[in-house]
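Archive transcription. Copying these from loose printouts into the bound notebook so they stop getting lost. Printout 1 of 2:
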Amino acid sequence: MTEQIDLSDLESRAERMVAAAKAAGADACDVVAATGVSLSVDVRDGKVEETDRAEGDDVTLRVFVGNRTASVSSNGLDDFAGMAERAVAMARVTPEDPYSGLAEESRLVRTFPKLDLLDPEPVSADQLAELARQAEAAALAVSGVSKSGGAGASWRLGGMVLATSHGFSGSYLASRHGLSAMAVAGEGTGMERDYDFDSRSFFEDMADPADIGRRAGERAVRRLNPVKISTRTVDVVYESRAARSLLGHFAGAVNGSSIARKTSFLRDKMNEQIFGEHISIVDDPFKPRGGATRPFDGEGARAEKLNMVEAGVLQHWFLDGATARELGLSPNGRAHRGGSGTVPGATNLTLLPGEKSLEEIMLEMGNGLLVTDLSGHGVNGVTGDYSRGAAGYLIENGEPVQAVSEITIAGNLKDMFRRLIPASDLDNRYAVATPSILIEGMALAGS
């Protein structure tokens, strides 16, 4: 039986640390404390291979002395005076940063929204083991599966506390459940493997373990006997699981840090058409049971749902306070705690679905490539040049007919975004959510 976490004591300690930093000579400061407990179970051939339980706290004090800043971290929150004195001493000898500072008081959250983040139901190691066994058994029951690649189930409860010297104090708890299965098909050098998984805030939203295992087995069997294909230009459909990476590249390109460093291929594209008119992308920190839902950002600032792209036109960067000041813009509540300070980033980022199903899109394209897996990191954030290893299936007459592997697909993200067509099968489970995506006329390098 797993216990819940009481954040009240951690909140009190964070506020005492703020007072200690002010007493030590800090002009301003904030304290962020993260705490959590997790439980995971791995199963293979019906037997528990490993059970892991972890608990931990991490505390970071950030102080400002004029335009100078420094941070110290600890896994506890007891040596208030020592941490504060050390941080202030470090700040006094660091170079000045004209953009550093706390969020403006007018931007701080004063009334916390009620968000559905915490599943109160307890989870035990025995329950997790049983879920993993069910998923594995379903994978092994698929005809053509030769052995299990293992299955795992997990649960995590995490909490965040933030207190600042200008009057903010807030906290929240969030839960996460996960389940995955891997299946192996074939024998010897002809073996192929694939997996399926689910991850949700609430256990009641999780997919049936038997469905996860069955899909893992079916995917592994479909990958058997892949062929190599010749170099060509081809229409490419990214399965929703693979398509999430494209939205991730977009998120990186509209991150305020990349804009400030001039390392984004979209740095000069604000208020310009970068997608087709049928494309909308939203970022919503209040998405119900979302993977990145939160009541305030890493600075204690309020955030609103942002229409990042409307009718194909770029509308916003992701901005925290420091990056916004550097760019001469207003922050938009997208601060994440990172290292010694904050970095801007997305919350729940979603490419809205199109009107046609994946099957309809493949039928209309006739022949092409369905990409189910990507490998490598061949994306140049400055130019947008794109080259990734891929595996998937040849599409003939609108149907996936033959597994293919050891291919490379290439293009430029600026051109790919303009030709992007979303299907209607939005996979809305994760913080980065997309439907399947068609991109016409990509270069394919084969044998």
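Printout 2 of 2:
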Amino acid sequence: MLMTKYASVQTNLPGPKAGELLERRHRIVPDAVSYGIPTFVEHAEGARVQDVDGNTFIDFAGAIGTINVGHCHPKVKAALHEQVEQYIHTGFNVMMYEPYIELAEKLAALSPGDFDKKVLLQNSGAEAVENAVKVARKYTGRQGIVTFTNGFHGRTLMAMTMTSKVKPYKFGFGPFAPEVYQAPFPYPYRRPMEMSEEAYNNYMIEEFKKFFLTEAAPETIAAVVMEPVQGEGGFIVPDPSFVQAVKAFCEEHGILFVADEIQTGFGRTGAYFGIEHYDVVPDLITVSKSLGAGTPISGVIGRQDIMDAAGPGELGGTYGGSPLGCRAALAVLQVMEEEQLNERANAIGGRVRERLLHLSSTYECIGDIRGLGAMVAVEIVSDREQKAPAKDLTKAILANAQERGLLVLGAGLYGNVIRFLMPLVITDNELEEGLDILEQAIHVCTPQYV
């Protein structure tokens, strides 16, 4: 019997109160809005969440990577309370406010590149992506946008078009935006068995270049948009040589390179921006998620000449860069520096990989362990040699872990990846208990599915 100190689930899920809320939810909220665990939050702090029935959970999901500084960080709460007392919203397009300017200055200073930059603030990651596309098209005078297989960029029309996975993100929602193409992206774990890593990387670089002979002419492309680590795609980490080759190709052909840092940004990979691991400087960067610690805020950071290509009134939005989001984001950046969360991310990731590697010696279902910093994933397979995806086993492990008090998410094209997005303020004891729960779930579920 696993003894837990921080996680405690004393009811079935959903419990009595959550069950009533779930009935109300199904009556009024479309079923298309999914949920990971059948209960409702009452309180959250740091890396722990309590539901309405008093059950407590260790959070390895982080609201899909939005809570790197933890739930309800005191500095974030203080900043929000102070802002509410002053003003909530005036609309930056109507009467401007200083927090927008201060946040833009800090983001420009932190982001890669020693050139002059400007920053546009919006609400969501999808909005940031859409605006990056608008800016790239305006600057280059071209229409084409290239993304990658297994990539995810959002759910609005353009962002959904740019996203790779058909179900559940695109199925039945067409027609899609025109002039969007998907280039091949490396999947190192699934490279042909006869290929070495170096040969595979060289092959994928050549396939990327070939793409511009068979699918889209370079002179028609405004931007290539890449996640430094693919998020929804299963935390797939490309070799630096591939990323550098893509950037070099963009420079050769006047194509803008856009780093989609919405899930990789602000400490998740052990750096402020995931692209820092590749010695590549993007022309544009999209940010959101953990920038706001749970408040809606996003942005596009880019070279000044690129960002100034659009004319007055051509960029903006009613709530874009709201005062509350800006103040929360400024507090996040302060916390990251003071609590050294980039360093903490590397320590967390190292421990998670260490535990998973230990488990792989016992459980044959663990096929691959990968990631950067605390952006770590494990791919679950039914056959290590054939690397056959074990989707049902993955779902069972996730459900069992949740029943034991661990919030954890799946991902991947085949639905067989378990990803870790725990707040970077998680304590060592909480981290170890969460990993113990995951191990117990794997132990219980594996005999039934493998």
